[in-house]
Amino acid sequence: MLAFVKNPTSYNTTLRTLLQEPGQKHILSAHSHAETDGQDFAWLWDVDFEELAPQVASLVASGNKAEELAMRFKYAGVPEDRVTVIHDRPGALDYALRQAGPGGTLYALAGYTPLMELRRVMDSRGWVPPFWQQ
Question: Per-residue confidence at 43, pLDDT binned at 50, 70, 90?
Fold first, then answer.
């Protein structure tokens, strides 16, 4: 599942939907501070990651603010040994998919720029059509 999350309201709404699914979750959280994404990441502290933390089986933090994102999840209660920082978007996606395993579900939660980067990777691999063809 690939979800666009751009602020606390959209993130919390997405998390509530995700938390309705049973079991442990494999998460890829990708954010950047490109001009189109906004340069202030303080809003991440307004996201209810604490509700998600008990269900995180694995989490990959990606982007040019990956360490800050990983720290936010740590403070939310996600054990450090379940969090991996991978800046490279294709590498983060590949690692996160391996963590989810065959038949598993990966929840990719991304800001605008990382979302478009992940879509390009998925498109280049033939997994999804270009977004304008849907």
Answer: confident
Q: Which pTM value belongs to this model?
A: 0.91
Report which of 117, 122, 59 is spatially closest to residue 85, judged by C-alpha positions.
59
Query: Rounded CA gap, 84 and 76, in Å?
Result: 15
Secondary structure of the chain: what % helix, strand, coil (to 5)? Answer: 50, 20, 35
Distance of CA 84 to the CA centre of its chain: 12
Output the CA–CA distances (angstroms, integers) from residue 121 to 10, 90, 129, in the order listed: 24, 6, 11
Residue 105: helix, strand or coil by DSSP?
coil
Task: State residue 33's pLDDT score.
Answer: 66
Domains of the chain (ranges; CATH) run 2-133 (3.90.190.20)
Per-residue 3-state assignment (H helix, E strand, C coil) for 8-70: HHHHHHHHHHHCCCCCCEEEEEECCCCCCCCCCCHHHHHCCHHHHHHHEEEEEEECCCHHHHH
